[in-house]
Design brief:
- It is built from one helix and eight strands, in the order H-E-E-E-E-E-E-E-E.
- With 157 residues, it is mostly beta strands.
- It is elongated.
Length: 157
């Protein structure tokens, strides 16, 4: 398990390193279930593929892990969805998440779909509001399934 996690982080870091000179970035905050996060992302690491690192605090956590700090990496894939006149960027994503809680260390694989509404019509083209929902498959300390849901704000630069 540890080798898999190290491999995923290394792939994300190496892929993001080559993309820094040619892609955009974003940073943001989100809140929801199971907690609040700050994140930093790199656009178009590969065509239509973004990478995002997350640091969060779980204020609603399973009893066997407890409240604590989470660290994760997500890969986001842009979906070509016709949203009509509404300027939404629709995507699907997934990635590993490590939680260091008051009771134990947890590991999960999170998957989600999301949409971001860019605020260009409000004269704030760098800003965007997003919503993400999906399952979380927790592997450690016990094998269980749960949900994640986030509402947040991104600043693109």
């Amino acid at each position: 398990m540890r080798k898999l996690l190290i491999s995923l982080i290394a792939i994300a870091a190496l892929g993001a390193g080559g993309a820094f000179a040619q892609s955009g970035f974003w940073a943001g905050i989100s809140g929801g279930y199971p907690g609040a996060q700050v994140h930093f992302g790199v656009e178009n690491v590969f065509p239509n593929l973004d990478v995002r690192g997350n640091l969060g605090f779980a204020y609603i956590a399973p009893a066997d892990v407890g409240t604590g700090i989470g660290l994760g990496v997500d890969v986001l894939y842009g979906l070509n969805v016709d949203t009509g006149l509404v300027p939404l960027d629709v995507y699907a994503g997934a990635g590993p998440n490590i939680a260091v809680g008051a009771a134990a260390v947890g590991f999960s694989i999170d998957a989600f779909v999301g949409a971001e509404y860019r605020l260009g019509e409000l004269n704030l083209p760098e800003g965007g509001v997003f919503l993400e929902l999906g399952p979380a498959i927790r592997v450690l300390p016990t094998f269980t399934a749960g949900l994640i849901g986030r509402l947040g704000f991104n600043w693109h630069f």
